[in-house]
Amino acid sequence: MPKSRSTPLTDSSDWWKNALIYQIYPRSFQDSNGDGIGDIAGIISRLDYLADLGVDALWLSPIYPSPDHDFGYDIANYTDVDPKFGTLAEFDQLVSAAAERNIKIIMDLVINHTSDQHEWFLKSKVGDPEFKDFYIWQDQPNNWTSFFMGSAWTYAPERKQYYLHLFDPHQPDLNYHNPKVIQAVQQVMHFWLDRQVAGFRCDVINVLYKTSLADGKKQIALTGIEHYQSQPGLHPILQEFRSKVWEPASAFIVGETVMVDLKQAKELSDSQRHELDTIFYFDHLEVDRRVSRYVPKAFSASKLLETITKWQTGLDYPSLYLENHDQPRIVSHYGYDGPDAKLRQRSAKMLAVFELTQRGIPYVFQGQEIGMTNYPWDNLEQIQDVESHNIFQLATKKLHIPKSLAWKWIKIASRDNARTPMQWGSAAGAANTGFTTGMPWLPINPNHTEINVADQLNDPDSVWNFYKQLIQLRKTSPTLQNGEFKPVYSNRQLMIYERILNDERWTVLLNFSKHSVVPPQAHLRGEIVITNCNRKVLLEPMELKPYEALVLKV
Ligand code: TEU
Ligand code: CA
Q: Closest ligand 1 atom, CA of 166?
């Protein structure tokens, strides 16, 4: 195959370059024992479903022992499985049962911080000489603020010092100036690679290295960030991880990189730099947000096209995602989740086209493939996520924003929107949409009777079948996989881009609004390869229906 301009050629050890990765939030995927919490046995029972969809790898949000202040992102032991999820033996079974279906397992590696219940921290807190400098201790706090609001420092009376936590006080930050920490973390990675995992999704990897602990420039959120975000000292650490641990195991590494810009992203993930394989950026999900992803403003398809074009043309292997466990559901965000079910489904399919026709590595978050929507929350008490509660406090107490307005923001952006249980459904009308026989840990969306896997598997026109077909199409189309990305036209509602490989040209037209729009007719050329409106022919002149997606090939 001739080399394309934008995506380097792949070989078999680079399986991830054309893979479809499915993210599982284990707590909410499938419960097997009636305790209301999803588990490993539940995941195993759904492997055929995932294979059928066309999934190549599963990224599991954390399954390690955790007191769950941040639902698994506060890890108390890196080398075990939390009993609520199962056992190491069951984990091994999952790896082999998945392998039988050609599905790989990617672990979530949270190494910026541990739980305050981790043995390392318990020992550090009492000054054990071996662990004393595993964390970041100071006699006096500086002015840094945490991602979860408030001071980033908490006093530990045992040690009579303050420790740094960029997230919750239950998540103390590890000290990457200490070579013993770097060693210990490498042991953790070996432990899982030895169990045949295929790679890691590295949580907030670009904030590990704190250059200094000086006071930061005062800001509403994240005072101090200039001292730790994407610092020069991070690169040697990643290069060491790569050469000593990742490369020898052919591990695939995706880094979650917060507040990252293109230059930083390239420095972390350009192929020839031998650090990360790819990164997660955020700004494509924030074109209708200001200051924080909680504060809404008007959407613009032009702004969105401009944002993705930066990553599409700038990175070797962009990571493509529209949902994860920290984001609201995309149908409720850039799509339509109102009373018109047909329109809702069409918008879910349009968003599928948007994600799966870009170049890079696509990720589908559980439930995205059936077009799950945000939960109709009534009040803050229903929400468990620590971030939602903290944001509400900050907004109402410190910034004096009216409670009703702050609640409106939380309701649409809360991380719990993505975390409600997977809507399996069942012809037999199983209790709790087949997620659990017990009491689900978060409420099940009442729309599970309308949006569920069981119904969609049987409906050739469903969102699920549309995802499945698109995933297949992507696997068999070199142009979709490797073709150059070229933005062509956009306005507030509409975007058009092309994917070009040799003499093949695909044109993608997407209407992001609930109104019809008229595209420049010059771009309506070629044969219809994808339609979410059962369109058979191109008319002239032609308008795109609300949330229509159309892909043409010449
Ligand atoms: O999230 C990183 C992060 O920066 C979060 O602030 C995230 O962007 C925000 O919650 C969105 O509103 C990672 C994990 O994905 C998240 O679940 C964890 O809570 C966080 O790190 C701490 O480990
Ligand atoms: Ca369970």
A: 22
